Structure formats: C-alpha cells, structure tokens
C-alpha cells in the first residue's frame, strides 16, 4: 500500500517536472529567433506585359461597391532584399489575395514565401486580413517547411510604393518566434 502511494507520488513528481521543463522552453516574445526584412513586388498583368507581369486578376465581379470587392488576384511575386524591383530575388511569394472591403479598400492574403537558393530552402506561409489603407498591418506566419520547419511568427507589412493598379511594393518585416 505504502509502496503504491510512493509510486504515485513519484509519478506526479516527474509528471510536473516534465511539464515545467517543457514550459521553461517556451517562446521569448520579446526576442524573435529570426528577424529579417524583405520587399515584395507585384506587377499586375494588363494584357500587354506578359514578359514582366507577376500577378493576374482572375475574378473581377463588377458593381459590388467602389473598392474592388470580390476581385481575386493570383501572385508569383519576387522578394528582394532591397526596394529595387530589379534586384536579384531571394524568394517568391506565391498564392493569392482578394479585395473584401465594401466601404473602404481592404484585402485578405494567403502567400507562401518559397525560398530555393543556396542560402535558404523552405517555405513559410502568411495568412490574414490586410487592411491596405492602414500604414502598417500585422499578419500571422502560420507555419513552414525546410529551413523554416514548423515556424510561427508575424510579418508587418508597409506599403512602400503604389503605381495605380499596375505595380506595388510592400516591405515585409518578418519576425519568427518559433524556430527549430
Ligand atoms: C513591363 O513591361 C512593359 C512592356 O514591355 C513596360 O511598359 C513596363 O514598363 C514594364 N514594367 C515594369 C515595372 O518594368
Ligand atoms: C530549386 O532550385 C533547384 C536548383 O536550381 C532546381 O533544380 C529546382 O527545380 C528548384 N525548385 C523549385 C521548386 O523551384
């Protein structure tokens, strides 16, 4: 009987010890484990720029408000280390975004950042609401593969340049809080 009790006490001791050890390995939200800045460039296909277009509107319902509501855009946009869109791309942002604002410009994006260089191989996926009229927007990084296996974090988006509906450049300030 005493032996049984002793075993149970021991079990709970090691159980709580391992739980607290796991917790002590929790994330430091003050200090990201990786932090870098990239720029994404989007050149919209206009029927006449096949050579350099990186995105295309594939759905465009007319008449649903004044803010492109319902427009769906597929992207394969280059990511560069600086703001010059002619710089050597280090990765690509592949996915889509759509406009979902009825009373203001608003969009929602899902992009997988695909790295396939000698420095980095892997992906990380960004998802979330992107209220483009705000000076900065914070979106979730929900996961990754390869060099970014199982990562999580946030990306702060800032619009750097917009040329009508032909071109835009966003700064992406990436902070990862979970790295393996
Ligand atoms: C893309 O190509 C078109 C046609 O060649 C050109 O007019 C336009 O300036 C180019 N856009 C960019 C951003 O280089
Ligand atoms: C990644 O790069 C390698 C080497 O350049 C190439 O063979 C491969 O097709 C690329 N993969 C993708 C998904 O682009």
UniProtKB/TrEMBL annotation:
Keywords: Apoplast, Secreted, Signal. Pfam families: Dirigent (PF03018). It comes from the Eukaryota. InterPro entries: Allene_oxi_cyc_Dirigent, Dirigent. Residues 1-24 form the signal peptide. GO terms for biological process: phenylpropanoid biosynthetic process. One of its GO terms (cellular component) is apoplast. It is found in: Secreted, Extracellular space, Apoplast. Homodimer. Dirigent proteins impart stereoselectivity on the phenoxy radical-coupling reaction, yielding optically active lignans from two molecules of coniferyl alcohol in the biosynthesis of lignans, flavonolignans, and alkaloids and thus plays a central role in plant secondary metabolism. Belongs to the plant dirigent protein family. This is Dirigent protein.
